């Protein structure tokens, strides 16, 4: 049974920390009824593992379950249009084998293949090396139609920069760097768009698997930047940059520029002073 008070508290804490979005209390109150109806319609046995997310200010709940197709994850979202977009992009990426299978859909709900063990890469004791991560990026970017992207990369960047500025960080240099990059575009693929390592899961059967795309069209270095910036300090970031560029056949200078542009965004999501300092220094090119 859903503990609505506990789930509401989680959403409120995330909303307060992120400084954007509002908790949709009306949607939360309707969750038990929606869950009961879907359980009957899709013959699901609901588990006890519940994950909450507030990505881009959109509330969602992911619940472990089992059904006729085996272990699954039931995702319920307050914004049914945003979830429908996510489902469409997961289907675009499906031939890569690097996203969960979409098993069923309804308004505001999607039943996804369960990723086992499904641990976010950011929480692994040892993160994937650049060789493994390059294979993951290669597979993901080899499929999908850039023309199907639901947003322009410039609009997505503007939203992210706006959130970062409201958090008190200066992104003037980031804006300048990305404007220069976009004025001289490189390869154009369908990007995941939000490939921080909390959205990359470990799978026993398929290696690395991406979830929750906020897709746009652009160059591959954009999706690669988050992996580089997960290095603990500047030396580790530089190693990741050089090795990933080599393994994934990326232009190292363009990857470096995207990483510098994105570094303040990574700093805005961190609550560790040492890591914030390292990311901001990397963004300034102090290495």
Automatic annotation (TrEMBL):
Gene3D superfamilies: 3.90.1200.10. SUPFAM superfamilies: Protein kinase-like (PK-like). This is Aminoglycoside phosphotransferase family protein. The lineage of its organism: Bacteria, Bacillati, Actinomycetota, Actinomycetes, Kitasatosporales. Pfam families: APH_6_hur. InterPro entries: Kinase-like_dom_sf, NH2Glyco/OHUrea_AB-resist_kin.
């Amino acid at each position: 049974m859903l503990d609505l008070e506990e789930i509401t508290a989680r959403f409120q804490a995330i909303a307060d920390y992120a400084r954007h979005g509002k908790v949709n209390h009306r949607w939360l109150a309707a969750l038990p009824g929606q869950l009961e109806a879907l359980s009957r319609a899709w013959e699901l046995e609901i588990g006890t593992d519940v994950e909450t997310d507030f990505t881009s200010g959109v509330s969602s709940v992911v619940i472990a379950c089992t059904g006729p197709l085996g272990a699954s994850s039931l995702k319920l979202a307050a914004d049914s249009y945003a979830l429908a977009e996510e489902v469409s992009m997961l289907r675009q990426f499906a031939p890569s084998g690097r996203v969960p299978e979409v098993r069923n859909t309804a308004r505001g709900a999607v039943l996804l293949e369960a990723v086992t063990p499904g641990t976010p890469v950011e929480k692994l004791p040892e993160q994937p090396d650049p060789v493994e991560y390059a294979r993951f990026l290669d597979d993901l970017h080899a499929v999908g139609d850039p023309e199907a992207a639901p947003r322009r990369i410039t609009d997505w960047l503007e939203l992210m920069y706006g959130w970062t500025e409201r958090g008190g960080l200066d992104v003037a240099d980031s804006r300048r760097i990305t404007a220069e990059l976009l004025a001289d575009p490189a390869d154009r693929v369908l990007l995941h768009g939000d490939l921080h390592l909390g959205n990359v899961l470990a799978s026993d059967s398929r290696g690395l698997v991406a979830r929750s795309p906020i897709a746009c069209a652009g160059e591959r270095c954009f999706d690669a930047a988050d992996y580089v910036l997960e290095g603990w300090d500047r030396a580790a970031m530089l190693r990741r940059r050089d090795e990933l560029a080599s393994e994934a056949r990326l232009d190292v200078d363009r990857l470096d520029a995207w990483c510098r542009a994105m570094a303040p965004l990574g700093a805005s999501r961190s609550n560790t002073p040492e890591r914030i300092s390292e990311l901001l220094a990397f963004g300034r090119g102090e290495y």
